[in-house]
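TICKET: design request
STATUS: open
ATTACHED STRUCTURE:
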């Protein structure tokens, strides 16, 4: 006879995310995927710190979250390219909430150029933002996660890091490095019950994509523009909440045995798993 052990009562099936009372930091969270993720975590009962470079936008994001959820978040203006800022946002979070359980390294921009167009300064800027920002924030977050018995880190990367097209530098390289960072961290931090995963973003609605839409196809509705042929099997550009839901799952107790993996959020676009 097979005995199945589980955590639900007979006849009662539910998925508990286990985020109530957890404390999270989300970088690059004044807009887009970062802001949407903050909303989902707050709605699930987490205490959240949002951070970004633009102080005005950050304050507007905090006000928006309060309006939508009735709950305040801690807003810390942060430039993750500066190691001292990464340390400062972690310290401010722990001082306010007393612990740290979750880190979402979301800060980043898209900078697609051909190889010969990318100078040393641009290479350094991109790596400082997308790679070293994640490294420094994680370095200061991990000791606090150990103190509470574990945690979850999600590094937000992009599918171009897996299959770089032409003229995708330096973004494709820094994103590929973020994936390698994720796998290596998951091996080192697994014994401390700290899970590390990455989500690889494809075409997701953003200010940059909306600008492309309005500049190049002003006569089209968003629905028409979104459904143009871009070889996306699902047939449209994704929405920020569709990325935020996956991130929320990955940092939750529902994903307690998921670590060291990448999840494509791209509507099936990428040619790799």
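STATUS: resolved
RESOLUTION: sequence designed for all positions
ATTACHED SEQUENCE:
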């Amino acid at each position: 006879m097979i005995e199945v052990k589980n955590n639900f009562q007979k006849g009662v099936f539910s998925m508990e995310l286990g985020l109530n009372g957890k404390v999270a930091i989300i970088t690059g969270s004044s807009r887009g995927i970062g802001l949407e993720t903050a909303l989902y975590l707050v709605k699930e009962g987490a205490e959240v710190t949002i951070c970004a470079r633009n102080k005005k936008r950050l304050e507007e994001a905090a006000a928006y979250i309060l309006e939508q959820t009735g709950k305040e978040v801690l807003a810390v203006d942060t430039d993750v390219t500066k190691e001292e800022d990464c340390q400062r946002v972690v310290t401010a979070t722990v001082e306010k909430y007393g612990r740290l359980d979750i880190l979402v390294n979301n800060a980043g921009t898209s900078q697609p150029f051909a190889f010969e167009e990318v100078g040393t300064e641009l290479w350094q800027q991109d790596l400082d933002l997308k790679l070293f920002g994640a490294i420094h924030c994680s370095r200061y977050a991990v000791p606090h996660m150990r103190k509470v018995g574990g945690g979850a880190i999600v590094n937000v990367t992009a599918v171009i890091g897996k299959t770089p097209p032409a003229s995708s530098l330096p973004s494709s390289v820094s994103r590929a490095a973020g994936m390698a960072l994720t796998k290596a961290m998951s091996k080192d931090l697994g014994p401390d019950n700290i899970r590390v995963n990455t989500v690889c973003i494809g075409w997701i609605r953003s200010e940059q994509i909306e600008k492309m839409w309005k500049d190049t196809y002003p006569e089209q509705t968003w629905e028409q523009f979104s459904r143009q042929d871009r070889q996306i099997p699902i047939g449209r550009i994704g929405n920020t909440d569709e990325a935020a839901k996956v991130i929320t799952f990955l940092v939750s107790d529902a994903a307690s045995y998921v670590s060291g993996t990448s999840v494509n959020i791209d509507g099936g676009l990428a040619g790799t798993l």
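CLOSING REMARK: Helices lie at 32-43, 55-69, 83-97, 120-147, 171-189, 207-216, 222-226, 240-251. The longest helix spans residues 120-147.
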